[in-house]
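Mods, move this if it's the wrong board.
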Amino acid sequence: MFCYNCGKQLLEGVKFCPYCGAENIIASSDSGIKNHSLYNKSQNIQNDKHTASINEIQNVLNYFSQNANKYKEFDKVTAKLSVLRGGRSDIQKKLSRILLLISAVVFLVILGIVITGIILSSKNNFRAYTNTLGGLAFFAPSSVLFMMFLYLGILSLVAGIVLLGVDKSRDNSYQNNLKFFSNRYFELSDELYLNYLNYNNCPVKAEYTNPANIFVIQKALLSGQAESIDESIAKLSNSAGCSNAKKNSQQIASFAQKTALSFGRLKTACQLNAVFLPANCFSGF
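Not the wrong board. Structure tokens:
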């Protein structure tokens, strides 16, 4: 006779296992035989439920795998929005403004010198012009330093204008990407949610229907870590990876809504029915 709980060998007639303390339900008595029968029946029912859960999750996986490419695209769109959400670098814009400021200062100084020179030259007193400048006499229009100063202003002006143009182009590209990916986010979200509704009484919530995540739920069932789909999801959703994925997905969804609305998308079309979690959100389990 052996203990059904720990498997240790027991002496005949012992009612409790001396190793683990479990009751010996298969003791040689009518009540023991009856209890053993009830235990086996309970185990059979539990095994049947477990098998049914495995079969059901396989059906779910087969159904949602038909849209695996759309889920992959949705993950890529979400990743792109995550990058766009961080904004874009303003280094070029700041540099162009600094260069334009330098060119403005240079040209103002040159303009003042030239105007002063014109006034004094008109009075046939160009020497007085250079003398009046004193220590700045090297800025006389005939000097090499003056020409270098003039070229510095011209180069700063041209570089500033070019950088402003590049920055404007980058800004337009950034805005176009925002518009495209926010709209695509809602298009895919609507398609995936409608597909979810077409599965009557789906045992998995819409947010977990990425085939890669359903596969992990199935794996937990097959390995015996969970007896039912609900138990599997409950354990997996408590993992650190899933918690972070939920938080990040919610933030991106909110960002997509604000962006889409700013580009004139109808408010009713920006209502999210579900926030789909990315593939492998259970990776921390």
